[in-house]
Amino acid sequence: MSEKTKNILEWVECIVIAVILALLIRYFVGTPTVVQKESMYPTLKQGERLILNRLTRTFKQVPERGDIITFEAPTIISVNPETADLNNPVATYSNEPTNIFSKFTYHVLEWGKTSYIKRAIGLPGDHVKIENGKVYINDQELDESSYLQEGVVTEANGGAFTDITVPEGYIFAMGDNRENSVDCRSFGCIPIEKLEGTVVLRFWPLDKFGTNIVAK
User: Which of 16, 22, 57, 177 stands 20 to 30 A from 147 (CA)?
Assistant: First the structure.
C-alpha cells in the first residue's frame, strides 16, 4: 500500500469515527433544534434556536411539570370527542418503521419525522381537567403565571381529552399559545418513550441567550 493511499484511508477512518460520535451525541446527549411553528408563542417564536437535552429520552426520565419538551408527533392529531376513549386517553402511533435502515433514518437522522414542542402539564397519575378557562391538576388550579401571558385562557379547542387521568408512562402536554396549539387536548397523552428531549438553552437570537426561557 502506498503512503498516499494509507493517508487517505486514515482520513476516511477519522471522518467515519467523527460522524459516528456526532450521531451518538446527537441521539443520546444533546442536539440543536429550530422552532418551526407558533404553538409556544410568545415564549418561543419561529426561527429561534434551542438546545435539547436528550438524556431525558436516553434514560426515559419523566420531565418536570412546566418543562418545555419535544416529542414525536402522533399519527392521529385530532380525535373525535364522540368516539374518544377517555378511559385510555393516549395518542395513536402507527407509522413505526419496520427495518433497520428506515429506523435509523427516521429515529437517528430524523428524516421524514415530525416533532412537536410543547410544555409538560400533566404527569403520570395526574387528573387533568380544563374548565372555565383554567387548568386543574388533581382538583387544584395550576399556577401558570410564570409562563402564560396575562389574560391567556385554556379552553378545550374542540379537543376530546380535557378531563382525564394521565396513564402511567405518559404525559399530558400543551402549547403556551393555547388558542393555536394542536396538543394533548386533541390527540391524547404522549408515551414517555416518544419524548425526544427537554429544552435547556436558547442560543438564538443572541439577545435571548440563556436557560431562563420566558417570553420577551
Answer: 57
